[in-house]
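FORM 12-B: Structure-to-Sequence Request
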């Protein structure tokens, strides 16, 4: 689960020390200005540009200026390129080339504020950015900048992405990123601007930070549409943070969302209702956590599945809760140890009485069937218990309403959610 171990399971343009730096930049390092506020054209849609000198009538116009500034040194490998052009002009083409001649591919931000390389730049390397623009009178203008990236830093954070290429997940699967140590609050907006999500079909979304900045979740206002493709790039490599650390690597994945499968558990009836594509498949008697160890009420998702495992709670401070038990068909719901699993020892009270240590107990036969149906990311909602689900105890992105969820974003979220950050 994820790209590094945790408890038995496995900044943006604003953060850069270039034109969009967290710590500020040169005097002339500002965002591009475009006609009527329209975004800049991507480098793959370049217009023809000539090399004729500017019209004398416009020769006094300010020179097109590229950021990072020419001669800049020790730029982060997360550097983005931007330009300031004379009023009324527009960018027609941008290229970024390494000293060895290799061309860097990239995309414009959706708002046209900067151009983002598709991959982190290389450490200790000289790059030349060339920007062509058309002036208000149709004349061609060009600006260039040669800058050098910094050496590889010694102090980096660790990070993870709980999404994997070519995997199919449930409709409740949030995009989950993890950071160790956590991202300082003052840096989260900058980091969030470097976390890119695109969905097909398009669905708006937002990020939400939890657990002191050690995790961030991305979700849409509603569950993902079945069949959605989610493409993610967590462009963390080289991002400078205020604590002196830097992002370690870029992580990316493209995954699919499968059919709509959902489980709903009501403590009042002690029944689980299982739905697929909106149709009730079956009802399953359950036994939830007893009063001293109640199950959590809220919406969770299946985080991992183990056909067989061992629950070992010998380190629990309460002797009454210490045990070592072999478990079949276990499906993790929280980091704290709540699962759906087979509990043949409680079959006689399932549907009538809560006797578990917080898990959702079902019969051996029902557990086997359910295990065969579910995917990681399938949502389960439990209601009516004595304990409310704690944010961050599992992938809790759906335990909040949309209006509450967007409050956890480090950046403003448009009503209804944000679209993709890159054009």
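FORM 12-B RESPONSE
SEQUENCE OUT:
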């Amino acid at each position: 689960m994820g790209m590094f171990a945790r408890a038995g399971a496995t900044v943006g343009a604003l953060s850069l020390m270039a034109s969009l730096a967290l710590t500020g930049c040169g005097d002339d390092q500002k965002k591009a200005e475009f006609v009527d506020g329209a975004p800049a054209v991507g480098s793959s849609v370049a217009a023809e540009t000539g090399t004729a000198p500017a019209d004398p009538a416009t020769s006094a116009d300010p020179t097109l200026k590229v950021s990072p500034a020419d001669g800049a040194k020790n730029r982060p490998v997360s550097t983005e390129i931007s330009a300031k052009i004379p009023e009324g002009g527009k960018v027609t083409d941008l290229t970024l080339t390494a000293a060895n001649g290799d061309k860097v591919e990239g995309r414009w931000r959706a708002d046209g504020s900067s151009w983002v390389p598709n991959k982190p730049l290389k450490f200790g390397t000289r790059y030349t950015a060339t920007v062509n623009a058309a002036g208000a009178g149709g004349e061609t203008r060009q600006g260039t900048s040669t800058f050098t990236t910094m050496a590889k830093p010694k102090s980096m954070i660790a990070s993870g992405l709980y999404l994997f290429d070519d995997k199919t997940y449930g409709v409740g699967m949030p995009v989950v990123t993890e950071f160790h140590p956590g991202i300082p609050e003052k840096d989260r907006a900058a980091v969030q601007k470097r976390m890119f999500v695109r969905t097909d079909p398009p669905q708006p979304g937002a990020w939400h930070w939890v657990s002191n900045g050690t995790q961030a979740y991305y979700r849409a206002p509603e569950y993902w549409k079945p069949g959605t493709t989610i493409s993610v790039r967590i462009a963390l490599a080289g991002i400078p943070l205020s604590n002196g650390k830097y992002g370690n690597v870029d992580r990316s994945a493209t995954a699919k969302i499968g059919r709509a499968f959902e489980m709903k558990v009501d403590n009042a009836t002690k029944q689980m209702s299982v739905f697929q594509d909106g149709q009730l498949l079956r009802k399953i008697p359950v036994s939830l956590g007893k009063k001293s160890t109640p199950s959590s009420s809220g919406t969770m998702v299946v985080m991992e599945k183990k056909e067989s495992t061992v629950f070992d709670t010998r380190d629990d401070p309460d002797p009454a809760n210490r045990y070592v038990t072999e478990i079949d068909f276990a499906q993790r719901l929280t980091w704290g140890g709540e699962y759906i699993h087979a509990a043949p020892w409680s079959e006689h009270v399932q549907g009538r009485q809560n006797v578990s240590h917080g898990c959702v107990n079902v019969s051996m036969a029902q557990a086997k069937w359910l295990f065969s149906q579910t995917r990681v990311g399938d949502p389960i909602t439990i209601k009516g218990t004595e304990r409310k689900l704690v944010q961050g105890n599992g992938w809790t992105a759906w335990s909040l309403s949309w209006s509450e969820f967007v409050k956890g974003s480090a950046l403003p979220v448009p009503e209804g959610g944000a679209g993709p950050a890159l054009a």
